[in-house]
Write a structure and sequence with these properties.
single chain, TIM Barrel, binds 2-phosphoglycolic acid
Length: about 250
């Protein structure tokens, strides 16, 4: 099965609305036809980014959401509010959300179910810490996170979900997993998906690699057959670096 490459830029807490719109405008001329592209701006830039991306092949994803439809959740936003900005998707379970803001597998699962119900695409991030890898627990952690996020999510919905494998020790550190290490983790994730949904559904799910992907290492990672693109942090902040990574994803 050949999956279309999918590269997303996770801007984290960077860029104003005006900067986001300007970025989208400049990226527009540098979109390879063979690659699906998404940007995850901060909440305050979603509407401007979505307006700038209208009619372009750039999907706009929020970086988080709350699972409730509305209510007394100070500082949170709902799926409907994300849709209201014109964005089409949401990133869930990023390791910074898990480590700094107490995100749990159960929480990611609740958010994913609500996102699907609302018609939002989702990227679910999973990945082990350095201590977990050194203790030989990588597979167990990935299984817990993947099974936890997808609990009671039907096979019709799993195709709308992208998994991002992001080893925590590689995020923002300049230490990338080698292509072979990433390929092995992706194969483990796909095997878990096959247990849950069968081979055909598992083959259709795109699995991105994230963690210090840069223009000079992207092609090596993307050449592995289990690596279907990337979730890019720091290198998604400039059009030059991000478009070089998009070019490296062209099969
Ligand atoms: P990085 O971040 O590319 O800056 O390592 C990746 C991510 O956290 O999604």
């Amino acid at each position: 099965m050949s999956r279309r490459p999918f590269v997303a830029g996770n801007w984290k807490m960077h860029k104003t609305a005006a900067e986001a719109a300007e970025f989208v405008g400049r990226l527009a001329a540098r979109l390879p036809a063979e690659v699906d592209v998404a940007l995850c701006p901060p909440f305050t830039a979603l509407a401007e980014a979505a307006a700038a991306a209208a009619g372009l092949r750039i999907a706009i994803y929020a970086q988080n959401m709350h699972q409730a439809a509305s209510g007394a959740y100070t500082g949170e936003i709902s799926a409907e509010m994300i849709l209201d900005t014109g964005a089409q998707g949401v990133l869930l379970g990023h390791s910074e959300r898990r480590q700094l803001f107490g995100e749990t597998d159960e929480g990611v699962n609740a958010k994913l179910a609500v996102a699907h119900e609302a018609g939002l695409w989702a990227i679910v991030a999973v990945g082990e810490t350095e201590a977990e890898r050194e203790a030989g627990e990588t597979e167990r952690v990935l299984r817990r996170q993947v099974e936890g996020a997808l609990c009671d999510i039907g096979s019709d919905r799993v195709a709308e979900t992208t998994i991002a494998y992001e080893p925590v020790w590689a995020i923002g550190t300049g230490r990338t997993a080698t292509p072979a290490m990433a390929q092995a983790a992706h194969a483990e994730i796909r095997a878990i998906l096959a247990e849950l949904y069968g081979d055909e559904a598992a083959e259709a799910v795109r699995i991105q690699y994230g963690g210090s992907v840069k223009p000079d290492n992207a092609a090596g990672l993307f050449s592995e057959d289990e690596i279907d693109g990337g979730l890019i942090g720091g290198a998604s902040l400039t059009v030059e670096d991000f478009s070089a990574i998009l070019a490296a994803a062209v099969p």
